[in-house]
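Sanity check. The docking grid for iron/sulfur cluster depends on where the pocket ends up, so I'm generating a full predicted complex first rather than guessing from homology. Inputs follow.
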Amino acid sequence: MAMDEIIDGLSEVSCDVLVIGGGTAGPMAALKAKMKNPKANVVLLEKANVKRSGAISMGMDGLNNAVIPGYATPEQYTKEITIANDGIVDQKAVYKYAQSCYSIIEELDSFGIRFLKNENGDYAVKKVHHIGTYVLPMPNGETVKKALYRQLRRARILISNRYMATRLLKGADGRIAGVVSVNTRTAEFLVIKAKAVILCTGAAGRLGLPTSGYMFGTYENAANSGDGYAMAYHAGAALANLECYQINPLIKDYNGPACAYVAGPFGAFTANNEDRRFIECDYWSGQMMLEFYNELLSGKGPVFLQLKHLHDKTIEEIESTLHKVERPTRGLFQQGRGVDYRKESIEMHISEIGLCSGHSASGVFVDDNARTTVPGLYAAGDMASVPHNYMLGAFTNGSFAGLDAMEFADNHDFAELDAGEIARERDRVLAPTKREDGIPPNQVEYKTRRLVNDYLQPPKVTRKYELGMRRLAEVRDDMEQRMMARNSHELLRALEVASIMDCADMAAHASMFREESRWGLYHWRTDFPEKDDANWFCHTLLSKQNGRMTSEKRAVEPYVVPIADDEKDLYDKQRVRATA
Amino acid sequence: MPLATYQTSVPVVVDDAKCIADKGCTVCVDVCPLDVLRISDMTGKAYMAYDECWYCMPCEADCPTGAVTVNIPYLLR
Ligand SMILES: Cc1cc2nc3c(=O)[nH]c(=O)nc-3n(C[C@H](O)[C@H](O)[C@H](O)COP(=O)(O)OP(=O)(O)OC[C@H]3O[C@@H](n4cnc5c(N)ncnc54)[C@H](O)[C@@H]3O)c2cc1C
Ligand code: SF4
Ligand code: SF4
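Predicted complex below; grid placement will be based on this.
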């Protein structure tokens, strides 16, 4: 049987806790669930292969947000993230993360993942953020995936690779019941009944189109097409602050980090075409991105990461990290362009837009136990709403999700599956394979994402959004009526387009709902250019109600760590003040 | 609407002389996060079947014989 041929088939299995997405948060969630109840069945479902999937497929060069005793306190960290996120934070979850992440670092260390230590054997944490010190380099960061995989095997987690989850299933009482998934190489269906489900499918990283025009040249791992956002939406879960887009400063065209977090502590900095610093701090925030954007358009662009003033040995050390882990083809790219960091600065640009809480704050709404608003459904990592949680947040919040989900599974029986719902989903999934003639998924995807760039990319203009939403609705019609897949690989891409389309609709809807500007470039609305705390100091929650996309306000929970009035706008003061 | 095929130069190249897919190896096909590598029915060797690459490197890093080379996709080179 040739690979990618479409096979008719459906099987059904059941487990106690199902984890969807085996990148970063997923493996940790599965491990913790299993540790909590070793007799229970834990399944880890992955669209790619857990060995090399997700943002960390080639490892990471450091922890961006480690709260390590002696360097930082949970209070400081919670304060910094609250300010960086313009105050719209439920601090309980951030604080809980900050208190627990050190023990997760120690656990990762025990898995064999090494972090940078100084001569005394203490963790060598670096300062990149505006206020505190939280960046911990990982000199052998390429080992992350292997180390995690070993633990999964040891714990006997059942791994199902190459299954793409397409829709969550719920019982009559509204509780989670399981998921429908499709094999990406055969199009066979696997229905998994589960007492609790944890979504860990990463960012919506294929939303905007990179300026290179190459559809898979995204910042995020391009397998992360926002399926989790779409599934949560269709299951009736609430999604928080989707208008707070992810936009990152990256190596132009290559579209990966340059990377100021690695090189900054050695003395590198972000510069304009006069080789001058223009931002105080390289930590990624909407406010910083706005200054970056302004500089690009000011006549002082392009913007660069400058290393050429550093010592040769220092540059060598930086290269040994940048060209070995995380995005190891960075070296190859620079070589191809003839860029030597010793002589020339690295040209940077801004990325396509995406939805992500790992770097920003747009995700499926969760509380401090990683619970979504659907009973028995959890979310962790880039797709869950805990802001700026990065890799260590994926691990730590994944661990909270695993523990609480197993407790839920221990106290509940299976919810009844609805056969009609499964049949309808089967029809939806297979529809593109039943057409003899039509539009291939890559064209539908390209057009959708091109429209996202044309109309949804900030600055957000109401008139443009209205047009954009109309055009997207037309492409949705094409997608639903005319998109065609000739084999199971094209079917995988076709299903991804549906997620991308849902995410585009949600991004547009959420952006139009919040009638103010906030988070710098992430939500800059030209028709409402000011921050409006009187009316909009709140979360926005988007959900499907009676079949319609709906947005509502939700109050920010009272702070655990108070923020003084003169601290609130520290992240608004990003621009280096002109010196005479 | 009728379909036409169009050309694209793919970023990942496999050295047929080094590839041992004919002896049962499928490592690069197994690990690729975008699932774009396949074993050719004609040559029995691995190749890039779909131009949908994140230039991430697992295929090259994990190949037991060093047969895979990842290049930067032309559009962003
Ligand atoms: C290039 C880059 C550099 C970064 N650098 C750093 C850094 O230096 N330090 C730091 O702390 N953080 C960094 N981050 C952020 C950090 O890597 C992420 O926040 C974190 O890894 C996200 O984990 P996750 O589990 O949410 O997503 P991922 O690790 O991306 O995992 C998501 C998984 O879900 C799978 N999946 C998706 N859809 C489906 C579906 N429908 N069915 C089944 N499976 C599915 C995917 O294949 C993938 O394996 C970086 C991110 C990127 C992209
Ligand atoms: S991993 Fe290397 S040897 Fe194995 S199939 Fe791929 S190219 Fe061939
Ligand atoms: S570079 Fe990454 S996406 Fe491209 S073929 Fe290799 S493993 Fe797949």
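Relevant for the grid: Chain A has 15 helices and 17 strands.
Also worth noting: The mean pLDDT of chain A is 96.
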